[in-house]
Amino acid sequence: MLSDSKSKELLYYLKLPRYIEERMLLLLRQGKISKWFSGIGQEAISVGTTYALEKDDYILPMHRNLGVFTTRDVNINKLFCQLFGKQDGFTNGRDRTFHFGSKDDRIIGMISHLAAMLPVANGLALSFKLRKEKRIAVAFTGDGSTSEGDFHEALNLAAVWNLPVIFIIENNGYGLSTPVNEQFNCKNLVDKAVGYGMKGIQVDGNNIMDVFNAIKASRKNILNGSGPVLIEAMTFRIRGHEEASGIKYIPKELIQKWKKKDPVLHFENYLLKNKVIKKDYIENLESDFEDKIIPIIDKALKSSNPSSTIDREMDSVYKKNIFKQIPRQDKKVTNKRFVDAIRDCIFDKMSSDSKVLIMGQDIAEYGGVFKVTEGLIDKFGSDRVRNTPIIESGVIGAAMGLAIEGFKPIVEMQFADFVSVGFNQIVNNLAKTFYRWNQPINVTLRLPTGGGIGAGPFHSQSNESWFFHVPGLKLVYPSNPIDAKGLLLSSIDDENPVLFFEHKGLYRSIKEDVSDSNYHTPIGKGRIVNSGTSMSIITYGMGVVWAENFIKENSQYQTLIEIIDLRTLLPWDREMVFESVKRTNKVLILSEDNITGSIGAEISASISEDIFEYLDAPILRLGALDTPVPFSPNLEKEIYMPTSRLEKGVKKLLEY
Length: 656
Ligand SMILES: Cc1ncc(C[n+]2csc(CCOP(=O)(O)OP(=O)(O)O)c2C)c(N)n1
Hints:
Elements: H1 4-29, H2 43-52, E1 58-60, H3 66-71, H4 76-83, H5 118-130, E2 137-142, H6 149-160, E3 165-171, H7 192-196, E4 199-204, H8 208-223, E5 229-234, H9 252-260, H10 263-273, H11 279-302, H12 310-314, E6 333-337, H13 338-352, E7 356-360, H14 376-384, E8 385-387, H15 392-404, E9 408-412, H16 423-430, H17 433-437, E10 444-449, H18 464-468, E11 474-476, H19 481-493, E12 498-503, E13 511-515, E14 527-530, E15 535-539, H20 542-553, E16 561-565, E17 568-570, H21 574-584, E18 587-594, H22 599-611, E19 620-624, H23 633-640, H24 646-655
Parallel strand pairs: 1-2, 2-3, 3-5, 4-5, 7-8, 7-9, 9-10, 10-12, 11-12, 15-16, 15-18, 18-19
Antiparallel strand pairs: 6-13, 11-17, 14-16
Helix pairs in contact: 1-2, 1-10, 1-11, 2-8, 4-11, 5-6, 5-15, 6-15, 13-19, 15-16
The structure holds thiamine diphosphate.
Thiamine diphosphate is lined by residues 64, 112-114, 142-145, 170, 172, 174-176, 237, 241.
């Protein structure tokens, strides 16, 4: 039971979002805002939850959770500017309504993609657990979104790792228009908790004290180590999905029935009945809101619309790095394979930086399928070398949560191919967060990639181009042990999300002397592998080895062919490529990736656009065929891969 003063405060918080929403609906009708997702009738869930938490607990709200923001007392002027898409909002007009985070308020806002923030809550929760802090994370989801894969991955991981997290399903009867009986086939959504091995609680979501008590008790139990909790709050969406979409498909009786259960009326009556307040208290509250909120709305509406410059926007996609670059020193070297160089880098970095941890499938005792992480568990223990269930999206989302809390997580994909299952987290969460609300996301994703090992279409793909198109990501692709070590250290220290491609065929096939001490190889800088006069081969990864072998085996080309190893694909080293082309005047772009829409296509277009006058021949692209990677080693080597076409291509260009 709350004290009288707390009860009154809670009523204030419960009524405030209702008041604001009613104003927003008016503004919508006046055409002053473009869209609104109403939470009217559901406020008890947002407000009761937020009120029951401590200020240091994180909340990950969704589109109907205005009450989270108002109960957390976020800067209301800034909030309205955000809701109106103004310059002074949390995203400076770069994203809409509740799509922002505010670390000061311990709120991590949503992206449009449903359920995508649930895995992020796990990462935040893991950070508390690792630092032994008495804090929890609370993530909201709708009933419809429980069908999304991220819901299942998040609940499963939270349970397996015993994380301090609450997942709240607001069961308001409908997805967009689809009723719950077409969304799932179990009796109650909360029943799903059993399947994950976590506690499940169903509450009356229109009774704020029920919500408050459930959250308070769950928080206490979670902090005593009893594991994550799934709460299903029963409520109803009495307005349309968003205002323009109407409510024709909802039976009128249902709406009437739920209006009678209105959470605000319910709590007011409860407080009146218990003589905590009198009627005039409610009236006074309402006129207080009027006095307080109307001027704020007016001011926000009159505030500046976003304005910027091309340079400023382009400069806001990546966090500028502030770490001190360690140059390479080869005083003491050891002859190492590619795989050893990567392992050494991780080992050294984890030894010197307690914020670095590594997660992935079978990476602990087993050492990963390519044994890159072998032995790490013995040195760093299972807190920092974490086997995950088979969840790509879930672990990438968790890495984002860890990064928000200052960790530098490395995630190993078992094979680069499986990153497709984590695509959304990468291209929408990791990549866009810094631009949207200025939060750097330092996550390094290691991707064992490439073919040539007879592994067929699902264990051989070159999928760097899938991500090349996405602003906010960096793509790094070393071709040798020295670069692998230095580029990986740069990737881990880089505050932006980096996809680090490791060609499986290079792991154990090449050896060279690698410096024993740590060093950074700068991201974005290519390397001239061989200087030549008459054509440039621009390539990366395994392509570098092919090109080097080609000139070794055909020494007549040694002085003619310049080989550029891009090392970083995003951003690629324009300056080095252009300088080389200006010297040699002929270009062959070589990749293991298939040709259409590849990185080579972009480089070729850029050369044509910017330095066309230096070309003495059309640009030639050589890559794999536009087919899936075939399984048969014969098909793969002889037909699919570009190596068999390399000599012909070189001759064609030189003779042009
Ligand atoms: C991945 C994804 N698919 C589809 C949509 C479009 N969409 C936006 S809200 C919504 C309904 C969500 O229903 P529910 O999770 O029950 O939440 P509610 O809106 O009822 O609060 C849909 C289908 C989306 N935003 N994201």
